[in-house]
Amino acid sequence: MSDVLLQAENVGIRFGGLQALEGLNLTVRDRELCCIIGPNGAGKSTFLNLLTGTLRPTSGSVRFLGHDIAGLPLHRIARLGIARKFQIPSVFPSLSVEDNLKVARWGTSSPVRPVGELLDLVALGSRAATLAGELAHGQKQWLEIGMALAIEPRLLLLDEPTAGMTPQETLATAQMLLRLKGEFSIVAVEHDIRFVRALNCETLVLHQGRRLRSGPFHDIEADEMVRDVYLGRR
Amino acid sequence: MIARDRNWLLIFAVCAALAVVYPFIADGYQLTVIRDALIFGLFAASLDFFWGRTGILCFGHAAFFGIGGYIMALVTLNDAIPLGSLLGILGAIAGAAFVAAIIGYFLFFGGIRGSYFTIVTLAMGVICQQAAVSWSSVTGGDSGLIGIPPIAFDLGEIHVDLSQDLPSYIFVASIVAVVVLVLWSLSRGRWGTVLTAIQDNEVRAAALGHNAPLRLLVTFVLSAAIAGLAGALYVCMAGLVAPDLSGLLLSTEVIVWVAVGGRGTLLGPVLGAIAIQRAQQTISSFNPSLWPLLLGCVFVVIVFVLPDGILSIYARLKSLFKGRRQAQ
Amino acid sequence: MRPKACSQACANASQVLPDTMDFVVTTLLNALTLISILMLVGLGLAISFGLMNVTNLAHGEFVTVGAFAVYFVQSVGGSFWLGLAAAPIAGAVVGCILEFAIIRHLYSRPVSTVLATWGVSLILQQGLELTFGLGAKPVTPPIEGTFDLFFTVYPAYRLILIAIAMLTLLGVVLLISRTSFGLDIRTVIQNREMAEGVGINTRRTYAIAFTFGAAIAGLAGGLVAPLAIVLPQMGVNYLANAFFVVIVGGVGSIGGLVAGSVFVGGLTSVLNYQISPSLAQAIVLLAAIVAVRLRPNGLFNGASR
């Protein structure tokens, strides 16, 4: 079990009287790719906040490389090797694309990939001098993935990486991630099923704050109960 | 980006050349006027380094100017201290930095930004002025301290004596030039870029591994240290220190210099300080209470008409012509 | 008849007791005076700074204008009470003009609001100085003399001030909790878009709330005029302290306002007995900063980090 990177055991969180999440387990091994899916309001983002230490669970535990990271300052968590892409694309609008990536590289003590390589990875090579605020929505999402890569993470957490993207952009993003697969662990929270199908990885399905099913995506997709609550009859 | 850097260096070179030529055409009095204005320009640049790069407005920056001034005065007026001028300057820098470090620590690490920061620093300025007035056994109260000697020290082979107009002008002008150049290279390089990122989205910057509160704190301390240096230089040139130097009015004026000169340009605030003090002397000679009134109007006008400072008129005209040309 | 020794001892004890009681009661009442004023000044700031997110650096001038209103009415022969009635009106007029001419255009530009309102503050100060001349303005209280409170004698006017302040605050609480306008304000504060959705004119609500806060600050200025040194520059001290009240107490509740006022006013009054006022101010500033560091959401909003 030495290759376990992130382990959530029996995690739950309660906001006032509301039990938002309950009894969730997730094990992310080194260089593994997995997805968390579920309908809106299933608690996906809350779960991600627990995994990144932004929130502290009221029951159970979350450990990254064996350490409790809940409540640590954000920059310390980043330096441990956890990168996060936010749900709303958050880049630095008044800096150029290149400077955005530079700022990300400066955040880590040992950047590896040069800016040029990062630009190519996220398909923004031709926009290096553009102000990030002037990018199209999908390009902002990609830039943010590039920034997360720049800090050379051990674990990359993506909160709805394809929100607001066109179907083509969604597929391109999936291919981007598949190319990176094996370099570090990736956890993606999504509700776009085409994207998850393209990744075809271990998947955890949340429903009303609890685990509904987990396993490889093709098993999940075939599951009647998952189809009922989530995939719908559409 | 590159063109902007070149333009900045060009303007800097022109200003430096003017500063070199000026002693040949000006008499002693005019030289001291510009010298004192340059010290306030240094003060303005110190505020701009913080405000311009972080977007957080410090409304009590004169407190650091005043702290620097009083420390300088107390050290040089004490005959028991050797190398008074040199230690005084160092003490002034350290004292201002120390106060900024304490206040900044609690505010930045407490998550205080924006308006809250502005308010607390405003209060800090008010209190510093009150302290200067009421702690009269040390500060000389309302009338302040007089008889502060000009900067003079021997350090091995180096003999510095600034009792004459020309040497003091050269000394001040060189310090201003060096500090502005250093601040500029800091703010266009890695330090400033990360500060801009923090200003854009602090949470994002932190999630990339940047310790945002620490960086803001260091920037604030550096800014206060330079304000302290400016205060120390000023009291030696003026020969006196008074509570006004840490007062709200000076804090207000320095904001106007920066706002009029152009926030974030470093050079603009220096020029703004020189130009506005010139205007102030003319206007105050009519009626001293007219100046604050006019200052108030300037604030309102800046906000509504020229949010990016006087230098932005040029950029606006340029874009106007460009727009016309494109329209044709 | 008691034994002589006892009566002596009793007399001694009762002499020590009234002295400490005198001190305690006087300090408490002084603190209460300051707390009352801070609550009134802070109320308007809690509305503009805390709820509308507008940093109004001209708020102190509402206090000044209120004090000058009392001075002006007295100087033309009117009574103090007439002046006190004019004070909130003067504050409201200035506040209304300020909101209409400047603040409503800058809701989305916080730093610009700071600069513009500071400009207005300077203009008002100098305007008052040019109109009324240099120097402190005398304002006489409506009642001279003291009131015997058993443990101590205390200036009667200060007791009246405390009473008026408390009644005003009570009135505000009732206004906000019981009237339809109060409901509008609470709705706008909680969710501006939603309020617009249900047909509340948020712009008008903001304007009225702002003017209302200015009027209360003007009233505070009128009340404090007989005790304070009435100068065009008097506002800035109230401005700084009122901001501390709002910052320390947290925004969004009358409870926070009271807690902040008690913290700032109480600490200032107690410290003023021991040390010089400016040192006391510095300590209050430090205490406020530390309090904010420990409880970023305010003393009253229990959630600490």
TrEMBL record, chain A:
A GO molecular function held by the record:
ATP hydrolysis activity
Report the domain of life of the source organism.
Answer: Bacteria
Query: What's a Pfam family this protein contains?
Result: ABC_tran
Do the record's keywords include Nucleotide-binding? yes
Under PROSITE patterns, the record lists: ABC_TRANSPORTER_2
Q: Which GO terms describe its cellular component?
A: plasma membrane
CDD domains in UniProt: ABC_Mj1267_LivG_branched
Signal sequence range: none
Give the transmembrane region(s).
Answer: none
Keyword entries, A-Z = ATP-binding, Nucleotide-binding, Transport
PANTHER family (UniProt xref): CONSERVED COMPONENT OF ABC TRANSPORTER FOR NATURAL AMINO ACIDS-RELATED, HIGH-AFFINITY BRANCHED-CHAIN AMINO ACID TRANSPORT ATP-BINDING PROTEIN
* Record's protein name: ABC transporter ATP-binding protein
